[in-house]
Amino acid sequence: MKAVAYRIERGVSIDATTRALREAGWGGKAIAGGQSLGAMLNLRLAQPEVLADLDGIDALRAVREDADAITFGAMCTHAAFEDGKLPDPTRGLMPAVARGIAYRAVRNRGTIGGSLCHADPAADWVSTMPLVGATLRLEGPDGVRTLPAAEFMLAAFETQLAEGELLTAITVPRLSAQAQWSYRKFCRKTGEFAHALVCALRDPARGVERLVIGALDGAPRVFEGEGLIASLADASQRTAWLAEAGIDVDPARTTQLAEMLRLAVMDMETPR
Ligand SMILES: Cc1cc2nc3c(=O)[nH]c(=O)nc-3n(C[C@H](O)[C@H](O)[C@H](O)COP(=O)(O)OP(=O)(O)OC[C@H]3O[C@@H](n4cnc5c(N)ncnc54)[C@H](O)[C@@H]3O)c2cc1C
């Protein structure tokens, strides 16, 4: 199948692009790396009248380093994180996550912003940005707003983005030197979307202990609390905890999830 006919708007600024998207209403769509949207267009799962190409907007590739955080433009590619071309506030987590996304051709074009906006529950940034406590900047014809990454995704392929709005930047807090993380993704082949996904972060200097369960039917689930990770060291506690947390997946995925949880807890108990 081929895509429906659409008009391309080559964006040169955020303002002009959000205005063009607003004029097109829900018939307008942004295109970033095209790695997810390209397939959706060809399958006619997306049938936009106007495609706003973000590739020419330099502001969407800007990176700003502050004392306590780094802000990445939404068009930063997975490959740029993987290759260490961007500063890393996460003590190796972001490059490690980027390296496990798809294969190199996809990583060359695919962007962190596109991945968050596409909101595939099994995608990697969708779970890891809530883990690190990232904040997202959304800009639209009505102004700018920021919100925690953990609140951005509402359901599978559904986000808080309003008509005409773009995700323009992602601010990631700098982890302290004592911070420990784990990122465990179960998939049959390297680079596949996750079948089960667990990531954990402990950063005592910043008062953070967090666990994220991803690749569920909807948005990832975020859990916090001092001592949470150590409390899951025992296998029977892990199974009971998954049930108590209301994580209701089929038996095969429960087994995969319990194993990823075991490995994540083990990583956290092993000093890096
Ligand atoms: C074979 C294959 C394997 C893959 N495996 C994985 C994997 O293992 N893990 C993983 O995480 N991902 C995987 N992906 C997805 C990949 O990471 C994509 O790059 C990503 O999902 C979309 O990013 P993109 O920049 O290409 O966005 P696009 O495809 O251009 O856009 C995706 C959606 O987001 C919207 N959008 C994009 N940017 C913005 C913005 N700044 N503001 C508002 N809306 C925006 C678009 O309108 C569209 O709806 C895979 C993709 C392929 C093709």
Automatic annotation (TrEMBL):
It holds the Pfam family FAD_binding_5. Gene3D superfamilies: 3.30.465.10, Uridine Diphospho-n-acetylenolpyruvylglucosamine Reductase, domain 2. SUPFAM superfamilies: FAD-binding/transporter-associated domain-like. Keywords: FAD, Flavoprotein, Oxidoreductase. InterPro entries: Diverse_Substr_Oxidored, FAD-bd_PCMH, FAD-bd_PCMH-like_sf, FAD-bd_PCMH_sub1, FAD-bd_PCMH_sub2, Mopterin_DH_FAD-bd. One of its GO terms (molecular function) is FAD binding. This is Carbon-monoxide dehydrogenase medium subunit. The lineage of its organism: Bacteria, Pseudomonadati, Pseudomonadota, Betaproteobacteria, Burkholderiales.
